[in-house]
Design a protein that fits this description.
homotetramer, alpha/beta, N-(1-d-carboxylethyl)-l-norvaline Dehydrogenase, domain 2, 2 domains, 6-stranded parallel sheet, 13 helices, about 15% strand, 3-hydroxyisobutyrate dehydrogenase (chains A, B, C, D), 6-PGluconate_DH-like_C_sf (chains A, B, C, D), HIBADH-related (chains A, B, C, D)
Amino acid sequence: MKVGFIGLGSMGAGMARNLLKAGHEVTVFNRSPAKAAPLVEAGAVAASSVAEACKGEAVITMLADDAAVSSVAEGEGGILASLAPGALHVSASTISVALSEKLTAAHAEAGQLYAAAPVFGRPEVAAAGELFVAAAGPADTLTLAQPLFDAIGRQTFVFSDTPSKANLVKLSGNFLIACVIETLGEALALVGKGGVDQKQYLDFLTSTLFGAPVYRNYGNLIVDTTPRPVGFAAPLGLKDMRLALAAAEELRVPLPVGSLLRDRFLTLLANGGEGQDWSAIGRLAAKDAGGVV
Amino acid sequence: MKVGFIGLGSMGAGMARNLLKAGHEVTVFNRSPAKAAPLVEAGAVAASSVAEACKGEAVITMLADDAAVSSVAEGEGGILASLAPGALHVSASTISVALSEKLTAAHAEAGQLYAAAPVFGRPEVAAAGELFVAAAGPADTLTLAQPLFDAIGRQTFVFSDTPSKANLVKLSGNFLIACVIETLGEALALVGKGGVDQKQYLDFLTSTLFGAPVYRNYGNLIVDTTPRPVGFAAPLGLKDMRLALAAAEELRVPLPVGSLLRDRFLTLLANGGEGQDWSAIGRLAAKDAGGVV
Amino acid sequence: MKVGFIGLGSMGAGMARNLLKAGHEVTVFNRSPAKAAPLVEAGAVAASSVAEACKGEAVITMLADDAAVSSVAEGEGGILASLAPGALHVSASTISVALSEKLTAAHAEAGQLYAAAPVFGRPEVAAAGELFVAAAGPADTLTLAQPLFDAIGRQTFVFSDTPSKANLVKLSGNFLIACVIETLGEALALVGKGGVDQKQYLDFLTSTLFGAPVYRNYGNLIVDTTPRPVGFAAPLGLKDMRLALAAAEELRVPLPVGSLLRDRFLTLLANGGEGQDWSAIGRLAAKDAGGVV
Amino acid sequence: MKVGFIGLGSMGAGMARNLLKAGHEVTVFNRSPAKAAPLVEAGAVAASSVAEACKGEAVITMLADDAAVSSVAEGEGGILASLAPGALHVSASTISVALSEKLTAAHAEAGQLYAAAPVFGRPEVAAAGELFVAAAGPADTLTLAQPLFDAIGRQTFVFSDTPSKANLVKLSGNFLIACVIETLGEALALVGKGGVDQKQYLDFLTSTLFGAPVYRNYGNLIVDTTPRPVGFAAPLGLKDMRLALAAAEELRVPLPVGSLLRDRFLTLLANGGEGQDWSAIGRLAAKDAGGVV
């Protein structure tokens, strides 16, 4: 397929590269153009504007937040103004349910197709083309998009013909990951201060009832404080909790652990955590406990 | 080994049966003696008193709470008074760190051996002999107890030579399971009220990042409301949160999600949940949201 | 003064009436015009548009939320477009810090004056002209507005020359009132279920350490379930918690009790509370406790 | 009356002195006898044992916790063993509902009278004889005790003929005070970080809707960090939250803000707060917010 890709951050770069590998013709655009260079080397065409990235059958957006997606989708030279009738916008970003609903209506009015397909996985998983794709949109639209999903992901899960449902699934999924970080952090603070070896404890958990990738990965990130690159920045974690809570508020669903997580992120960000990985909230319980180790 | 087994509830019955299967000579005791009958049929000897169950090399206790363990361990005719010098008491119950410390001291003073070996798994896992055993105690003592652990469990994890550390691990583990129930309940309420199919959502979670038994089992218990036998009663869930919080308080470790879980169990128990499985707290989020489906 | 008044709800009607009583020339506007009739009878002039209410030296807005204030302030025929240079907009509504900052900039650009002066007190207090006014804005502007404050309030407190600080004070004040409702509700559920007479308990509290109007008023609203008119509707309570949390999030201040209150309001609204007074959250603790009396 | 007084801490010393002032014959006992000296100077007789303090018509206990009260009430030479039949034990300490129930039964069995009369007020209020007394017990018993209450307090509130109800009132009252500290702390962190003067804000609150002593006193303790003597130590605050939560758990009443307060005290105590006044939890919100001023 001839496809545009907008947003070459740590996730998007890997996704665009896997589209190329799968044989698609990819035109890439990024606000700061330097990030396009390695992809051009790998065979992509660099677009000098959003509009240029919208000349194919489809365009994928993978951006940090609602504001970034709005700024490329709306207004003069934006996706809505540039995409051909019948062409497809796949929104892979973690955005609000409300913005996804707004885009659904706007693309319909413009005679364009729209699907939401947020993805699960950290940058190394994106690079490996092993993301999980949570997709929603009209059946025809998803069929059209499937080759793109196949290129970036290991498996696609279809939830609804209403795109915003996929955004709700993504937000609730990130909420559940943050729950794992927080609750593991509490348990590790408790056993650690009680004199149990934290790594041995984690090994026990993940080889018994909690044998899921999310416990292994985040458990290690909490216990092993070796400096490493930020996979998912703390401010994005706060953003996701805010969006999950906003969706929940709209639906009148109280999420008490969600509220607590939002407070954790605020505490982290108010105390120097702006540049840390979101897993750093998993060390706040130990800090409250006076520092464990 | 010649071993006594005290406490033939839904967990203990299966454990005792697996000791028999493994070829141990088992003398069983239960407060209400009717529960001993099926085990006697399977080859066990029925003891008419705690003291009678203490005549072998070891005795295992598997009882509901601190009060029950104290009542068989202490006082005239109790385990401490009845066990031979050098014989072993394995406490498999989920009891407080404080009581485990008290038993450690009391058995030492009586010249007896003591190990804590609480287990992970619901009744059907106990019946299958596939429990995970979290053990702590002096190395020699644990070596002695290993054949018993092998009979009841799939794998033994040794945490410390201080028995109470295993109790801390068990309590923190149950805390983490309850965290899964609560947070899954919140996420399911959110997506369910938002119009996403809950079973499909659960399937997505457990085939991606949350592919752990605990998510599968408790997810199903929350979503599928078919009546079924109670595996772990809600009042025991409250007890475990209380013991985890008590251990944490002693160690000065705040556990905010633990506090929230305690409140959930109180809400459940105050509203007719005394006879329900503890997974019922996973449906309170949906109830707060006005009933989802 | 010649002053316009926009928003004749249960609070605004009383405030406008007290401006008339104090001798000001008042032009009133309300989206549904029927509410203007009793004030016209009392001497006010009815405006048929927002613009008509902006022909004097000042205009006061007293509306339900950000959306309502935006809709009368912005756009064609709105306050910003209609008010004379040098004329004054007093925003008495409980609005977000962000909107107040936006209005500050917009009025400055239009050469108009702007002050924020949210008020404390329920409808009967507004009717009595006994509100507390929390004001902020440039000193000159506040001096100009003082006669208006004197007409509607018992006392004016000046916080800053930056208008939005008064909005922050108002939101934090409503947060503190909601805290009283929630915590009184918890204490009343505890002692009530424990067999202590709730009215006697409340009388004890308010004649000793908690002798403040807010404890007396809200204590009675919780304990005495006689049906009565809604003073401050639950959805407005949720809105205020949301705005307080939004301001706090912007400032990176975690408010754990604020988070809990937001969840309480969601629970109330999801369970039939849309038309109830916000004090109804004070009965949720008793409900969680299984119903106390 | 001829009355014994056991427990001469910062509260008890003032209370005993006021009993002397009112003309009662007071025999005082304290575990560390040095504290008796100033009272002996003021006219008291120093007892060298608990039993000696139990020779009059009544004995009052004012001790730190359940353990201290148990240790003087029970066992050889304790109050239960020493008090004459028909003589009265007034328990003024903040103890658990459970211990109060146990003492009620034990004194009845010993043919002695028992009333619970916990008091509200900090040490300076105790010194002034201006405490509020929350009393419960059989009517005859309370009539007998009234002259003692009159000596130490400004006003007596009678709640029930079951003594432990007064303990429940006391615990719920301390819970409500801690709620004020926490919620004021959150509001002060919010407005302070937002640029509003905290003292001016506090002055506004306490001269309007929150005009209660508890807001004035604790507001000042939070905002004004001048070192001053500890009025009520943080570990006692934790104890009171624990006892309130234990009573609530027994009654199946979830107290979410109570749970949060317990966590706050644990955080405080885990981070150097053992020797601080309990009002220090009111500064944790600002600390979480990165330090406000």
